[in-house]
Amino acid sequence: MSDLTRKTAVELRELLDAKEVSAVEVATAHLDQIAAVDDRVHAFLHVDREGALDAARRVDAGEITGPLAGVPIAVKDVVTTKGIPTTAASKILEGWKPPYDATIVERLKAAGMPILGKTNMDEFAMGSSTEYSAYGPTNNPWDLGRIPGGSGGGSAAALAAYEAPLAIGTDTGGSIRQPGAVTGTVGAKPTYGGTSRYGLIAFSSSLDTPGPCARTVEDTALLHAVIAGHDPRDSTSIAQPVPDVVAAARLGLQGDLTGVRLGIVKEFTGEGAEPGVLAAFRESLEALVKLGAEVVEVSCPHFEYALPAYYLIAPSECSSNLARFDGVRYGLRVGDDGQRSLEEVMSLTREAGFGPEVKRRIIIGTYALSSGYYDAYYGQAQKVRTLITRDFETAFSKVDVLVSPTTPFVAFPFGSRTSDPYQMYLADLFTIPTNLYGGPAISVPCGLSEGLPVGFQIMAPTMADDRMYRVAGALESAVGTLTPPAL
Amino acid sequence: MAAISREEVAHLARLSRLAVTEEELDRFAGQLDVILQSVARVGEVAAEDIPPTSHSVPLTNVYREDVPTPSLAQEAALSGAPDAYEGRFRVPRILDEEE
User: Fold this and answer.
1) A-contacting residues in B 33-62 (Cβ below 8 Å)
2) What is the CB neighbour count within 10 angstroms for residue A251?
3) What SS3 class is residue A242?
4) 3-state DSSP call for residue A197?
């Protein structure tokens, strides 16, 4: 039954409903696929075979029902799972077993979804390639010599390698959407506050947003509906009903966008994107026009300052958040010889436990927040955030959604951007503005450039997540999904 | 002109409790300079009359009812500690001996 791994979540549910397969068979097929291919892909940092099979047995026993019951899932290793190792791909948390589940993990369990394991990522979600994982990179199933995107490259690669039909990611500056784009899968960043951050190891608290990843738009929407919604344990969680993203995706899949206005950001055209990426984007745009959509050019003059603002705000927040890794309450402790002081042990622990990108960001954040530089850097970045939000609001008074390529370039070869950190940052050029604004955005496969997947990004107003799913569904109905080469 | 010197990076690393090596300092100083020169562009826009945005959700003071709820058991809270002693986190010495 190895072809079970080729099924979508929707198809798996149909087979389960018809009693043609059991949840244990579905989980086993995916665990076997992980065993067969993950030595080449390295999407997983930890596989929980017994836990996944236990959860599947409970579904087979009829204890849990629901639209995704019995559909297995992979969870990014930055999300806490009770009793299951959670490292955020950092040496500083090696072997740590959280004493509690994240809210979204509680919801997956309540929905009867077997958790296959924890996926690889850039350390503490800082990066665009998984090359900053302390446990080695994930390889892109489309070309094992290329990056799978980041930070959530493990989750995206697990989908493209048919190791899991669904996955959880987190998106701070594009960490769901950019891996989705370069692996030919779908990834959605919900409205900030639409999904709970409780149990998410914090990187940049005003930006971090957990979200769904899958191979189709409808599967992504189904997972979105399971994890989204108000959580009193997250003080920035939005206490409003979740938009009906599943209905919107299905409406879109009918292939009619009559009257829908798509905004092209003038400042994004021509800036930095590879010709092949632009070509695939424009072809997809024409396909949407054939479905009845109208294309309007809009100006967002401050978007060009989004990348600089982000790379001040995110490091500033991370320098504060990562102060918790002090070698006292959990994780690594280095150099405690009975002679050294707490401060010395703390410094040695953090030096040994953090990788280079995390250190760079902590130092930049400390600089941007320090007296004398605060106004020029962090304070100024927060003002830019206001201007970018205004750009979005003005644009959404004229159009229903904004569209762009997800990332300027297709999956790049390993090592090609690590020597110059700023070159790596450019991978997030088109995804970052949304994070600063807080609205939802999704990446959908839209074709190939030089044999590698290209992503199409759809951005919507805050709490209009359903709107982006409608357009995403319509795009999928027009251009189809992508099938990676066999491993 | 460099935005940040090697000495400043060393100072910031100390503030951040990172015992960085000499080799790291050499490498980071150049890299951080490139990054800071790039991000300094935020100074080109945003005049004084623009209010800052710290957060995209317009919420303040989210309270819950003041009622006790179950929390982590002591054993669970200490389960990941590098060192624990009699129900507490054990830490290296905080004061110098002469203090």
Assistant:
1) 34-36, 38-46, 50-57, 59, 62
2) 17
3) coil
4) coil
Q: What is the mean pLDDT of residues A211-217?
A: 98
The CATH code of the domain at A2-255 is: 3.90.1300.10
Q: Residues B83-98: pLDDT tens digits?
A: 999 999 999 988 765 5
Residues 211 through 250 of chain A touching chain B, CB cutoff 8 Å? 232, 235-236, 238
Domain map of chain A by residue range? 2-255
Q: At A467, which helix (H) or strand (E)?
A: helix A465-479
A379 touches chain B (CB under 8 A): yes
Please write down the long-range contacts of A343-351, taking CB distance under 8 Å and 24 or more positions apart. A343/B17, A344/B19, A344/B92, A345/B92, A346/B17, A347/B14, A347/B17, A347/B18, A347/B19, A348/B19, A349/A92, A349/A325, A350/A92, A350/A325, A350/A326, A350/B16, A350/B17, A350/B18, A350/B19, A351/B18, A351/B19, A351/B20, A351/B21
Predicted local distance difference test score (pLDDT) of residue B98: 56
* Structure confidence by residue, pLDDT tens digits, A8-23: 999 999 999 999 999 9
| Reported confidence tier of residue B46, pLDDT bands at 50, 70, 90 | low
- The minimum CA-CA distance between B31 and chain A, rounded to whole Å, is 7
pLDDT of residue B95: 78
Which candidate from A366, A384, A422 shows the least CB-CB separation from B45?
A384
Domain ranges of chain B: 6-44
- Hey, how many other C-beta atoms are within 10 angstroms of the C-beta on B80? 17
Tell me the mean pLDDT in the region A55-78. Answer: 98
A302 has a chain B CB within 8 A of its CB: yes
Instruction: Specify the pTM.
Output: 0.97
| Nearest-Cα residue of chain A relative to residue B23 | A356
In this model, does residue A1 exceed pLDDT 50?
no
